[in-house]
Amino acid sequence: MTTDGSKIVLVGGYGHVGSLLASRLLTRYPGRVVLAGRNRQAAERASGRLGRGTEPATVDATDRGSVMAVLEDATALVNVGVDQTEPVLLRAAISRGCGYLDIGADARAIANMLDLSPSARDNDVCALVGAGLDPGATNVLARFAADEAGGADRIDISLLLSVGDHFGPAAVDWTLSGLAGPVVVHRGGVRKVLSAYRGRRRIDFPPPVGRKLAYRFPFPEQAFFAETLGADAADNWYAMDINLASRLLAGGVRLGIGRAMRSPGARRAAARLLDWTARIPGGRDDVCALAEVSGPRGLHRAALLSRKESETTARCAVPMVVSLVEGKIPAGVWLPEQVLDARKYLDSLAADGMRVLTAPPNPLAEQPSWSRVGGGGSGWTTA
Question: Which residues are within 8 A (CB) of 316 and not within 5 positions of it... i.e. 6 or more apart?
């Protein structure tokens, strides 16, 4: 697949996360980024704001012909905007011989895309799905911890977000939709039910976050770790920086607000409330992703500390897009933990200014003993 000089098309590239991702890609690929979506005016405004040869384009992600047309001179299609249970974008990319990356978090959509791996291999197309923060960086954290643990008997992934953060509309809608009811995923003959707020535990995040109350949440990677990392059991957990906020949300789920979130109108109203709370002075915007993996060599942990969920999602996606564009991923449809070198990927995040921490087993200590990845390729150093 030819890469030099070809376009990188971002579907949803003028949205909250998309524009952040585009800005970072332009430092490496000036003149090659295309912002595409249904709203031509929004694409033109974002392209003008970003500059550096950014182009706008109109595309209907549900129409195969429209997608094929926008991919005419593309080496990669990056889906930043829509979850597709019917993978129109990926099918078009495969037909065009174009690389594909998807940051979406819909478990059923990911499963449907993974099913297209034989077709991608037949057409020599590389595709990476679940490739943002969670899923995405969390998957790679789990891969690193599993390698250190000598395997994965059990994997727990925890994501902490802050009440004071400003989230993109798509991220808010997906999170609220997760409250509406369980998500059922069938993969490899195994039925996995992903539920929100049906269990809780206290989790020791790295400092300065500390111990927080977390609840089960239907992030998608838990449905695939049996396949990708051989895990016997896996769960995802969601925590907020203020424990009281977590308890209030859990209480609301028990009272039935989850069922209300099936309505788009109710989700929009809840999104406005969340946006209002984010504007209260003094709010924080911390982000922490944590992978805990139990294996033959004990419990190993790997964590990522950052700020601003939307910006962190874009920063986590950049090294994955680079790997795709520069032909470092084999043909097929993959999750990040299957094809990325965990150490190299995590070091690239550290070089970008994020804190990446690891902790080996230490049964005699009350708290994990954390070490960090040094930025700028300096390797792994004691914190």
Answer: 132, 133, 136, 137, 304, 349
